[in-house]
Amino acid sequence: MNSDTPSSAGQLAAKNRKTIRRLWLVVLGMFGFGFAMVPLYRLACEVGGINGVAGTPAGRIAAASVMPVDTSRLITVQFDSTINSGLPWEFHPLERQKQVHPGQQVAVKYYVKNLSDQPIVAQAVPGVTPWQVTQHLKKLECFCFTQQTLQPGEAREMPVYFMIDPAVDKQYETVTLSYTFMNTDRDAAPKPEQHAAMTRRIP
Amino acid sequence: MSVATAHDDHHDSHDHGPPKGWQRWVYSTNHKDIGTMYLFFALFMLFFGGAMAMYIRAELFMPGVQLANPDFYNNMVTDHALVMVFGMVMPAAAGMANWMIPLMIGAPDMALPRLNNLSFWLLPAAALMLILSILAPYLFPGSGGPVNTGWTLLPPLSIQNGIGMDFTIFAIHMLGISSILASINIVTTILNMRAPGMTMMKMPLFVWAWFFTALLLIAVMPVLAGAVTMLLFDRHFGTSFFDAAGGGDPILFQHLFWFFGHPEVYVLLLPSIGVLGLVIPTFARKPLFGYKALVYGMGVLAVLGMVVWAHHQYTIGMSLFATNYFMIGTILISIPVGLMLMNFIFTMWRGSMTFETPMLFGIAIILMFSFAGVTGVMLAVVPADMQYHDTMFVVAHFHYALIPGAVFGLYAGVFYWLPKWTGHMYDERLGKIFFWWTTISFNITFFPQHFSGLAGMPRRIVDYSIQYTEFNMISSIGGFLFGLSHLLFLYIIIQTIRGGKKAPDKPWEGSQIGTPGLEWTLPSPPPFHSFTQAPVVK
């Protein structure tokens, strides 16, 4: 009806079908292209280094400010955990100690579980022994930076990222990093009269 | 019996007009009716998205948080963009394509009339989905907050969003399918349905503009669909395409989004350039200057537009090589765009110009879009962009690009073709009032935003520091006037549909100067079925 004769209408329909098939191929190809970009983009970034400022002046300054790793010696870092009384939590590191080079970035995880039927907010307080190393142990990320809230029965693995400054004196071969978790709810903490034996520092 | 029925049907199909009632619209396969529905849908969304803009300007009238919470504000910023881009500009341009392309090239209808019906009726469904995404936090309490990511939907925020984000993703899927289907239809129509003698290089510029627009849409819409699909997978199916916690890369989403998003700018712009290519020669009464250069220019623009996307992401920390490449590519774009504007200016040079409403819009577009081009080159330059990034300066820039570049082009088209569509002349006096009202209030709204942006006011934030108060008050007053002017636009359209001076077949004296479109050989309004016998172009 749209054209003069049935045969030319048929020809037009065939021609249209051919065009449409080609256009659909483009559509499907581009849809696939989006997904193909996932590995291709990663490859392009690794090979071409386009996704980063490493080669730029800013990148060189940033690289220079990163501490060099001192591979000539190893320091043993021991991980310790303490729960302050009045906090019904389970708390321990997943590994007891690690050998690290000064300047090397290290990750370690602590396990924590709320054993009570109450949500509890607690705060971890870090300590470094010997104390002279404190200024050389740089924590990049730590669960002790913020308060931790655990729901009843909730368990969690919490990371600490740190490195030891290569400027640390050679005499320190073993360092202990310890954490003490405290309940932030002062009422839940033990009262002096209930725990007469307990020594408390009164400010 | 079957023979008799078949005979009756055959007989009817030559004579009957459109079916009566709702069936005419819901079952429509007629390009004119579908075009009309597209245009009315766009008009509705113009007021919907405009209402959001009014809320945004009311909130920014004074510093502090006055009307609603910041999440709602960011939701409105997000949906204002989505509604205006996908719900208003694209359907309006598609409506004009549906109406005019078959008439211009002498085709009886679009190549795939039933697909055409589907592409339109996906739109109201998508709009409903988008409205649901706004309402989701209230309909399903506890399902998460509103979609507050901005139209770029960047992860990780979009991965953490509530159920509203899922509705937005599905809305984008449907809008994407709709425009892909419409684009396939348009390309097929242009390639295969031209009347004998209507060669590609004789087509009116509007048809060429839509040809490139449709090709761009076919190339980039699937990439957006893929990107939001990956987003959906990250949200619900435990994948980590963009989730850094699982080894994904949120920056990859930015690349995928802007690989779509930058060509999308040309998708919005090109149909209006096509309208300009008809309006300017008509009212200058001179053939288009450099028709071939314009066609090639649009082709170059479409290709260049696909390879410069990362100029939206200078601040993400790309290598210097990549940044340089995207900067140079972006600045190169000013060459084809400048060529187009120069062609339009040379078309007007020594023409016998008259200043009817479409021509007024045409001239205003050339002036104001050039302005957006200049701020665009500023933003393309990396060291400058590092300062302008995410400030109100960017907001001013892209509103100068999109309102004159896309929306005013559509207004010019509406006034240019209203006599052809309705058979009535619109009220020229009201048209001129509307032009001056919108143009002046648009500039009051967005010009001060250049200053507040250069002074450092960030975009997409509900509150601002008190030193920006005056600029924002001026901007808001302009915005309310701009919004109000559209009531007059609505009135003019309704008045023209209901009656008015009878429009002749060629309502404009210069109608057929330049490219030989066939739309003016038909009466105004054209019959329900036109060009059932293919015309021959000499």
Structural overview:
- The complex is a heterodimer of chains A (203) and B (538).
- A five-stranded mixed β-sheet of chain A has the order 3-1-9-5-7, with no helix packed on it. In chain A, strands 2-4-8-6 form a four-stranded antiparallel β-sheet, with no helix packed on it.
- Chain A has helices spanning 6-48, 57-64; strands at 75-83, 89-93, 97-100, 106-114, 120-129, 137-142, 148-150, 155-164, 174-183.
- The longest helix of chain A has 43 residues, at 6-48.
- Mean pLDDT of chain A is 82; it is low at 196-203.
- With 203 residues, chain A is of the alpha+beta class.
- Chain B has 538 residues and is mainly alpha-helical.
- Chain B has one domain (27-503): Cytochrome C Oxidase, Chain A.
- The longest helix of chain B has 36 residues, at 70-105.
- Chain B is globular and about 65 Å long.
- Chain B starts with a helix and ends in a 40-residue tail after the last helix.
- The relative contact order of chain B is 0.11.
- The model of chain B is unreliable at 1-14 (pLDDT under 50).
- The interface between A and B is large, with 34 and 39 residues.
Task: Name some characteristics of this structure.
heterodimer, A: 203 residues, alpha+beta, Ctag/Cox11 (Pfam 04442), 5-stranded mixed sheet, 4-stranded antiparallel sheet, 2 helices, 25% helix, elongated, disordered C terminus, B: 538 residues, mainly alpha, Cytochrome C Oxidase, Chain A, 17 helices, disordered N terminus
Helical content of chain B stands at: 55-70%
Number of domains of chain B: 1
Q: Find the CATH topology of the largest domain in chain A.
A: Ctag/Cox11 (Pfam 04442)
CATH superfamily caption of chain B: Cytochrome c oxidase-like, subunit I domain
Largest sheet geometry of chain B: none
| Straight-line distance between termini of chain A | 98 Å
Major beta sheet of chain A, specifics? 5 strands, mixed
Task: Write the CATH fold name of chain B.
Answer: Cytochrome C Oxidase, Chain A
